[in-house]
Predict the structure of Gamma-aminobutyric acid receptor subunit pi.
Amino acid sequence: CLFKTFSFSIHFRSMQIPEAEGKSEILPPTIQKIIKGYNKYLRPFFDNGPVSVGMSMDIASIDTISEINMDYTATIFLRQRWTDERLCFDGNKSLSLDGRLVEMLWVPDTFIVDSKRSFLHDVTVENRLIRIYPNGTVLYAIRITTTVSCSMDLTKYPMDKQTCTLQLESWGYNINDVIFYWTRGNDSVRGLDTLQLAQYTVEDHFTSVSEAVYETGRYPKLVFHFELKRNILYFILETYVPSILLVVLSWVSFWISQSSVPARICIGVTTVLTMTTLMMGARTSLPNANCFIKAIDVYLGICFSFIFGALLEYAVTHFCTLHQLSSKELPKLYYPVKVSTFLSSAGSWITSKEFLELKLQLMSNPMSSESVKENPLTSKAMSVMKRLFCIFDCFHVKNPYHIDNYARFSFPLSFIIINILYWVYYLYF
C-alpha cells in the first residue's frame, strides 16, 4: 500500500507542467516555432513606427432602440487585421487556431466609446476567431452584444430621423503606436441592408476616420454612422386617426338642439376626457423629463384645443340665448342706465372736476342733453363711448341660434387648414 501511494505521487508530480510549457507542448511544431520567444506584451513594430489595424464589421441585429434611455442595442461581428512580423512562417496556407490561444498573442486594445453595457458571447465556447497567415497577418474576430448611447432629437417625433454612431478607439495606444483604418471604406460595415426593424428603416450609412483628443494624448478613432427613419404608419393608426375622429365627434354637438343641454354637455365632456387619456398614452414611450416639444404633442394639443373649443362654443351659445331672453324683459331706460354705468366707471380714470360734476348730473338725470351740450369734455366722452359701443356691437349676436351655423362651417375649415400647414411643415421642413 505504501508503494502504491509513493508511485501515485511520482506520477502526479510528473503531470504538473507549467501552464506556458503545457500550452507549447500541445501546439503543433509550426505554432511552437512561432510562439517560441514571442512576447505578447510588446506590440508589433515596437521600434519601427506604429502598427496599422484594419477593421470591418457585420451588424447581426439591432434589437432595441429606446427613446427613453436614448440608446440602441446591437449584436456585431467585429474583425480586426494587423501584421506582426514575429508570426511569419513558411507555407502557403493560413493557420486557424483555437480562440483560447488569443491569450498568447498581442491584440489591439479596442473599445466601444459610448457603450453602456457589453458582453462577449460564450456559448458554446467564447465566440473568438484567430487566424494567422504566412506573412504574419493576424485576423482576430469576436461576436459581441453592446448597448450604445445615441443622442436623439425628438422635436419631429414621430416624423423624425435619427443619426446614431458606433465609435471604436484604442484605449492605451496613441496615434504614434497604433493606426486604425477601415479595410473596405464605406463597404466595411455590412448587414444593415437586410435588417428588419420594428419602427425604423435604415436610410443611409457611412464610415469615417478621425482622432480622439484627450488629456493623455491623441488616439485613433473609427466612426460608423447610420441614419434611421421612423415608420409613421403605426402612429397614424395609433394616435393621429383616433384624435381626428374625436375632433369630428365633438362637432356632432353643433347639429344637436341647443335646448338639449345634457346631450351636448355629455359629448363635450366625454371627448375632452378621451382626448386627455390619448395624450397621456402617447407619452408613455417617451422620456418623462425632456425639453422637447414634439410634433405629436403639437398635433394632440391642436386636437384638444378644437375639442375644448366645441365645448366652449355651446357655453357661449347657451349664455347668449339666456341673455337675449332676459334682455326682452328690461325697461326702456336700460340704455341710459348703461350710459351712466359706463360714465361712472370712466370717472375712475378721468378725474377732472368738470367730468365728476357731469357724472353726478347724468346719474341723477341720464337723459339731460343740455349738460352734454354745455360741457365740451362731455361731448368728447360721449363720442368715445359711441365708438366703443360700435365695437361692442360687432360682437353682439342678434340671433344666438346662428352661432351653431357659423361653427359648422368655421371649425372644419380651420381644422383642415391647420392640418395642411402641420403636415407640410413637419414633413418637408
Summary: Residues 387 and 393 are 10 Å apart (CA to CA). DSSP finds eleven helices and twelve strands in the chain. The two ends are 92 Å apart (CA to CA). The chain has two domains: 30-230, 232-326+400-428.
